Amino acid sequence: MSTLIPYKDAPRILIVVSGGANYFHNAIGERLAEAFRNLGCHVDVRLLKTYQPAEYDLALYVNLYEVAFVHAAGYPDAARTERIIQSGYQPNLSEALQTVAAIQQHAKHSGVVLLECVQTEWFARNHHLARTAGIHTFYDLGFHSQAHLLRDHSITYRFIPNTLTERERQKALAYQADQRERTIPWAFIGHMTPQRLHFAQKLIQRLGTRLGTQGVFYLPNLRPILSDGPHFNQAQLRRLLQNTRYYIWTAHHSYFYVESERFRDAVLAGCVPIKVQRRDSSIEAVDVPFKYLMLDESDFEEHLQVLDYERLRQRFLKDYLAMPPFETLLAEEILKQQL
Asked: What is the spatial distance between Cα 251 and Cα 199, in angstroms, rounded to a whole number?
């Protein structure tokens, strides 16, 4: 393929995933592996418990805190994971960190891969653990750099746009001529919070009849997202979105952040993503793609009702496909920088 890098010796890359807690982090690990293999690299995807000592040019941990937490908790099933989190129990991470230390001894370079707002507790936990483990690089997969928001610069921060792999680009392109009737006018999806419940009420009361009021709400309690439940898994979410026109959500926290995975889920299902948020000058100043798909909470229904769905869908698809392939970005931002 065009992005293949002619290495004399193909780089060996280790990608460490949690194997639990949030299935989409495991899926991200597999996407990274696919893209690196397309570049001609040798890639192993492992859990901490399945790691076997070997020499690597690069070790990447997809959400290091989650990797260590799940390992320390003994790789529990969905029900036990939920009980552990609800109880507030914090397992001892020392054994997990010992395994990370062993990996570090056999890896020339290493980094933590995250898709998180840097202002959240989730990012802070990863930052602290990375410092403890002696990992010196964060790779932020998303749609906008968050470097200006960092307070602690002890770990190198690198932003990598979360674009589509070559295979995903072909899958998205197949929707260009899609004329199927989508029977669900809109779907509102996210963990239940008071703010989201309030917004759901707005959707019911204020959304005009042009889109229809028979949309889908999916607002489960905050729980681990494992492939075997209790939440939608990736395949179930994709089937829902393939029959939906507008995929709508609001943020889980009060900080500005563009959830690139939701946009990617939308383009791979051929629907239109709509993020509803509170506008302010700081948001307008951030350079992000797809701003036309981010509506103000105060008047979102007015804007949504006047949108031309098919024209918007084609624009979104065209703009997404205009972004560089994921393989190209990994080659430029990781392989050429580190190896």
From this structure: 11
2: pLDDT strictly greater than 70: no
Domain parsing of the chain, residue ranges: 12-163+324-338, 170-321
The overall pTM is greater than 0.85: yes
Structural fold of domain 170-321: Rossmann fold (3.40.50)
Residue 301 has which token pair? 């229904």
Those residues with Cβ within 8 angstroms of residue 181's Cβ, 6 or more apart along the chain or in another chain: none
- What span, in angstroms and rounded, lies between the C-alpha atoms of 122 and 155? 16
Chain-centroid distance of CA 204 in Å reads 28
Token couple for 193? 């919070």
Tens of pLDDT, residue by residue over 19-58, are 876 778 899 999 999 999 999 999 999 999 999 999 999 9
Most confident of 99-113, 199-213, 225-239: 99-113
> What would the two tokens of residue 275 be?
């993020």
Fold for the domain defined by 12-163+324-338: Rossmann fold (3.40.50)
Contacts with 151 (C-beta within 8 Å, 6 or more apart), sequence order: none
More confident residue, 15 or 84: 15
134: left (phi over 0), alpha (psi -120 to 50) or beta: left
For residues 267, 272, 276, 279, the Cα torsion angle rounded to the nearest 10 degrees is: 80
Q: How far apart are CA 231 and CA 220, in angstroms?
A: 7
